[in-house]
Write a structure and sequence with these properties.
CATH topology: Lambda Exonuclease, Chain A
Distance between the termini: 34 Å
Helix content: 40-55%
Order of helices and strands: HHEHHEHHEHEEEHHEEHH
Radius of gyration: 19 Å
Strand content: 15-25%
Number of helices: 11
Structural class: alpha/beta
């Protein structure tokens, strides 16, 4: 699995101290969805089997990272090399228990979505990235907030920030823009802090692994001051909740598929 700021965070012996001193978009998203699930995953650090969708997403992400790096190096595109890398990456990550329903189907649909992306992507092969899979951080102490950390999938020339998503169904673009607003705004803050420049825009590239693969691109303007303020207010809530150890459940339709369902039932 690709090392992320979250896998690094979970390996720390004093998670609460680390969680109070830093914040990431994915952690903030889980906190907003369910604080008790956040507690099980990041404070108690309960390990659960990897889901099939997470495995597929992680593998696709690794392939896209290699594709972006190959353009950065000026290498000639050869789809068979990426297919071989995909198959190797898929097998390497199946050493641990994964909850499969149909592994061959999942593998085939994931590669089909990637292959479709290589054909339909608006990114030209000779376009050299500005940054690929770069870890960044922003000191928000002047706002009274913890350090913001994150990994940018891709920054195209001119400061266009791209985030990749592998999904099983076509997203509604307006809803996707709202759903991932905090994440994209976090990337905006990180980019501006690292470069001293304003991003030129934000893009979500959804690789849809339906029977007939699709590519849906949601293009958004640079984050606004209002969006930055919304993000900071969300981080304030996170900070306050951690300080008071306010780990309460948020029952919803999502509970049916939650890996911590049994732990939640026992919570009091």
């Amino acid at each position: 699995m690709i090392a992320t700021v979250e896998t690094i965070a979970q390996a720390r012996p004093d998670p609460l101290h680390y969680l109070k001193s830093t914040i990431s978009a994915s952690r903030l998203g889980l906190w907003s969805a369910c604080r008790l699930k956040f507690f099980f995953r990041y404070v108690q650090q309960i390990k659960k089997p990897v889901t099939a969708s997470l495995h597929a997403g992680s593998t696709a992400h690794a392939v896209l990272q290699q594709w972006n790096l190959s353009r950065w190096r000026g290498a000639v595109f050869q789809v068979e090399l990426f297919k071989a890398f995909f198959e190797k990456q898929w097998k390497e990550q199946t050493g641990k228990y994964i909850r499969w329903d149909d592994e061959p189907s999942d593998q085939n649909s994931t590669w089909a979505a990637l292959e479709h992306y290589f054909t339909e992507t608006p990114i030209k092969q000779n376009e050299r990235p500005e940054a690929v899979e770069v870890m960044a951080e922003a000191d928000l102490s002047h706002h009274g907030l913890p350090k913001l950390i994150g990994v940018l999938d891709l920054v195209r020339l001119g400061g266009l920030i791209v985030d990749f998503k592998l999904t099983g169904k076509s997203p509604d673009q307006e809803r996707a823009a709202h759903q991932y607003e905090a994440q994209l705004t976090s990337y905006s803050v990180l980019y501006r802090d690292a470069t001293g420049k304003r991003e030129s825009g934000l893009e979500l590239h959804h690789l849809v692994r339906t029977k007939t693969p699709k590519l849906i691109i949601t293009s958004l303007p640079p984050a606004t001051d209002k969006q930055h303020t919304r993000l900071f207010r969300m981080i304030e809530s996170y900070q306050s909740g951690l300080e008071h150890e306010d780990f309460v459940p948020s029952p919803s339709f999502a509970c049916a598929g939650c890996e911590f369902f049994n732990e939640c039932k026992r919570w009091s």
